[in-house]
Design brief:
The complex is a heterodimer of chains A (about 240) and B (about 625). Helix content of chain A is about 35%, strand content about 30%. Chain A has about 240 residues and is of the alpha/beta class. Chain A has one domain: Rossmann fold (3-Layer(aba) Sandwich), CATH 3.40.50. The relative contact order of chain A is 0.19. Chain B folds into 2 domains: about 220 residues, no CATH class; about 300 residues, Orthogonal Bundle (ABC transporter involved in vitamin B12 uptake, BtuC). A two-stranded antiparallel sheet of chain B has the order 1-2. A two-stranded antiparallel sheet of chain B has the order 3-4. The chains are: A alpha/beta (about 240), B mainly alpha (about 625).
Chain lengths: ~240, ~625
């Protein structure tokens, strides 16, 4: 559990992932430093979602090394990885539609672990005023954008040091996308590291500095997002 | 005619009668709800249909019977009675914890078929344990002090204990609601019911959640059982009876929905109370009609929802399908048939009789392998079609005076007819819903066979079903069985590798995609179900003539489990798998039955061990062993 300032918060080395007999990720390696925001960009089916799921242990995975906050997470069960402070916001939002907004947040609640002030419903309702207004309503009655907000807020209730965000802008109206970007920047400013899976390069560039590009299950680029946008423009 | 019935129904429904029946129905609805709510909570969280839920109910009743006497000796008071109820419920709850930690926890990721089988193995084990501990006879429990009399309501004498039961339903519902809506545990349970993977991704340790759900579910089952003892004696048969009731309630109400269970229990309680006026013999028929109607309109029950996970694994890896049979395998099949042809000349009369039964079971088991492996239809009520075939043959001979030949023609027709009728409802479902419905249907057929004494002879069954004179020698009957059973198996095998079989497999792997390429999935599965029913019915008819008698155990659940156990032992991919399994299980049974009175426990432990020790299914391993043995030259 030794932790030094220079050690990355999340480090993945040669990660493979499988859907049944089919291999979906090949030798994915990258690092995420404390408080850093990195985009994981790639086309539909390139392996963005798979990478995030494999890190969380939601699908069958194998790696040479996977560490989070100094702990080996290669074979850890999902809930233990989450309890180490690695938050996950899935692509399909996966909010509990049978529960109220407040109950959804309760499911995500974990004890505070860092020196940062813990997230509370009051604090979250300040960032996401919509949620505060709907606290007692069924989460299933919310719009797509509101559900996305709730999904992020629910993960924040676990007081994570890093969050894996899977395509938070997908299928949302431009105005909502902007709000989403602001919320993610607020998280980043709070010191939370972000790994943002994204198809929309412009959206990603408004939040992160560094980008990883993934194609057919393998990392093909790791560097400043500006460089990646440059290459994309030339091809 | 219809008018006369209406009139007689109407005239018998005096006001006091209506009041009495409503209250009666409410009391049974309370009991039904308490048991079914436990089943539905456990299913919601763990996605396992706990077949042992009825066994926990039975244990609750026995615990109450045992605890109540000393408790009431201390003080013959109502609070003591309530204390006894609570203790019985808690004890059962603790057993639920043990069940989760020792068994269920190991199979959460297993295919449904194995999950169902392991809890069924437990049913068998608990049945024998209960008989060993408390004896085979019914035990009457003490009546509740202070609630022995009756209260007069609108001129009707209502037992006070019924009123107590009527109050217990809403009370338990309220308590469950409080736990689910007002505690963190309850919120997590509801969240996990919807999406347990997401709950884990939020850092919730599911083990604790699952253990808690099992405790709650088992305690509710135990409470349900304990509440019954002043009304009905505790008996070793009460587990399966209540299991069917609980299944029907949860299927109608929607799996995983507690309010659904309450609603369904209320409806069924009243249906039973008033159905008695229309069908005095068996209200189960009405319940079945209700279930059928609900499932047509709402396949996932009144308040249920479709499975949240679209890609569930129904059958294990090894269960994929019966593989195409290669040329060398065909040669070995030829050797096998040759060996089976010589067999009766090499063994004594008793072994010939066993061999006949093994061949018959092999055909029925192969039909089940056909359904499970290629159709993905896990039937837990396969014995129903076996028994229907047997009864059809028996009745054709005894009541209609037909000969054996006609009877053996009617048996597959009856099996197919029944499968076609029930299949209309069954094949629209999938996975556990389908398994539960097949079991419920089989139980209803069983109840009809037991209760319709004029036709079926009830528990005594039908005797004197003998083969025609030309087939009366055992060796001739053996050859008749060999020809018909191997023809049945080869025909089914042929169908599997015809375009129909491939389409069926496509529908199994992805109903949506099969639908999209223009396959009529429901019709394919219905045809497969009917075909399997025909083959199984033929096996039942052959069995009737081999035994000379028929009784309801032929279509009871243990017989269905035997067929599944045969597949578990013999494997499903190989054309000879069913024969290997039926040989293994039946031989073991024939050897073990005279030696032990704990055959059920032995079988149960065997099933549990197979599921636990080879999580991928014994089938794969069994098949490899089988292949090795056929390669080595030995035949089954």
């Amino acid at each position: 559990m030794m932790e030094t300032g220079s050690e990355p918060l999340l480090e993945v080395h040669e990660l493979d992932a499988f859907y049944g007999p089919a291999q979906a990720l090949f030798n994915v390696s990258f690092k995420l430093a404390r408080g850093e925001a990195v985009a994981l960009v790639g086309r539909n089916g390139a392996g963005k979602t798979t990478t995030l799921k494999a890190i969380m242990g939601l699908i069958e995975r194998r790696s040479r090394m996977s560490r989070y906050a100094g702990t080996d997470i290669r074979t850890s069960p999902t809930h233990r990885i989450a309890r180490l402070g690695l938050g996950y916001v899935p692509e399909e939002r996966r909010i509990f539609t049978d529960l109220t907004v407040a109950e959804n947040l309760e499911v995500g609640r974990l004890p505070a672990r860092s020196h940062r002030p813990p997230w509370t419903t009051t604090r979250l309702y300040k960032i996401f005023p919509n949620l505060g207004e709907m606290a007692g309503r069924s989460a299933g009655s919310m719009s797509g954008g509101e559900q996305q907000m709730l999904s992020i807020a629910r993960t924040l209730m676990g007081n994570p040091d890093a969050v894996l965000l899977d395509e938070p802008s997908e299928g949302l109206a431009p105005l909502i996308v902007e709000q989403m970007a602001q919320a993610i920047v607020a998280m980043k400013n709070d010191g939370i590291a972000v790994l943002l899976s994204e198809q929309n390069l412009d959206f990603a560039a408004s939040i992160v500095d560094r980008a990883l590009s993934i194609e057919t299950g393998a990392i093909t680029f790791d560097g400043p997002i500006a460089d990646l946008m440059q290459t994309r423009r030339h091809t | 005619m219809a008018r006369a019935i209406c009139w007689s129904v109407w005239s018998s429904m005096s006001f006091s009668f209506v009041i009495a029946q409503i209250l009666n129905g409410l009391a049974s609805a309370s009991s039904l709800f308490i048991v079914a709510s436990g089943l539905t909570i456990v299913f919601g969280v763990t996605r396992i249909v706990n077949f042992a839920h009825g066994s926990l109910y039975m244990l609750g009743a026995y615990f109450a019977v045992t605890l109540m006497t000393p408790l009431l000796d201390v003080s013959r008071s109502f609070p003591m009675f309530v204390l006894g109820l609570i203790c019985a419920a808690l004890l059962t709850g603790v057993l639920g914890i043990a069940l989760e930690v020792l068994l269920l926890r190991r199979v959460y990721k297993s295919p449904e078929l194995l999950q169902l089988l392991i809890t069924f193995g437990l049913v068998l084990v608990i049945q024998d344990l209960v008989i060993r501990i408390w004896g085979p006879l019914e035990i009457l429990g003490p009546r509740a002090p202070g609630l022995r009399g009756a209260v007069s309501i609108a001129g009707v004498q209502v037992p006070s204990y019924d009123l107590f039961l009527i109050a217990m339903g809403p009370l338990v519902f309220g308590l469950i609601w409080l736990v689910l809506a007002r505690t963190r545990f309850g919120i997590l349970v509801r969240a996990a019911t919807q999406d347990r993977e997401m709950v884990a991704a939020l850092g919730v340790n599911q083990s604790i959640l699952f253990t808690g759900a099992l405790f709650l579910g088992a305690a509710l089952a135990g409470l349900g059982g304990a509440l019954q003892i002043p009304r009905a004696a505790a008996s070793p048969q009460m587990d399966i009876a209540v299991l069917t009731d609980a299944f029907v309630v949860t299927v109608i109400g929607g799996m995983g929905s507690v309010p659904g269970a309450a609603l369904a229990a209320l409806i069924i309680g009243q249906l039973n109370a008033f159905g008695i006026v229309v069908f005095p013999k068996s209200t189960l028929v009405l319940v079945f009609l209700l279930m059928a109607a609900v499932l047509i309109v709402r396949p996932y029950g009144l308040l249920g929802r479709a499975e949240p996970l679209s890609l569930r694994v129904v059958t294990p890896e090894g269960f994929t399908a019966i593989a195409p049979t290669s040329a060398p395998t065909w040669r070995w099949c030829g050797v096998l048939i040759a060996a089976l042809t010589i067999l009766p000349w090499a063994v004594d009369a008793y072994a010939q009789k066993i061999a006949i039964e093994i061949l018959i079971f092999a055909l029925a088991a192969f039909a089940l392998a056909f359904l499970i492996g290629n159709g993905g239809l896990v039937s837990f009520g396969h014995a129903a079609y076996f028994g229907i075939g047997a009864y059809a043959a028996g009745l054709a001979v005894k009541k209609l005076g037909f000969g054996m030949e006609t009877a053996l023609l009617l048996a597959p027709l009856a099996g197919a007819g029944a499968a076609a009728l029930f299949g209309v409802f069954i094949v629209r479902l999938s996975g556990i819903y389908l398994a539960m419905l097949t079991l419920a249907v089989a139980q209803i057929v069983y109840a009809v066979a037991v209760q319709w004494v004029e036709l079926t002879g009830g528990d005594n069954g039908i005797v004197g079903v003998w083969p025609a004179r030309w087939a009366s020698s055992r060796i001739t009957y053996y050859y008749l069985t060999l020809v018909l059973c191997s023809a049945g198996i080869f025909l089914l095998h042929r169908v599997l590798h015809a375009p129909f079989g491939y389409a069926l497999r496509g529908a199994r792997d992805s109903a949506v995609r099969a639908d999209a390429i223009g396959l009529d999935v429901v019709k394919l599965r219905w045809l497969a179900f009917t075909l399997a029913g025909a083959a199984t019915g033929l096996a039942g008819g052959l069995y009737a003539f081999s035994k000379g008698s028929i009784d309801p155990t032929l279509l009871a659940i243990p017989q269905s489990v035997d067929f599944l156990a045969m597949l578990l032992m013999g494997g499903i991919q190989h054309i000879a798998g069913a024969l290997v399994g039926s040989t293994a299980l039946h031989t073991l049974k024939v050897i073990a039955l005279p030696l032990t009175d704990m055959w059920r426990m032995l079988l149960g432990v065997m099933i549990i061990a197979i599921v636990l020790l080879t999580p991928q299914g014994l089938v794969g391993g069994g098949l490899r062993l089988f292949r090795r043995s056929t390669r080595g030259g030995a035949s089954a």
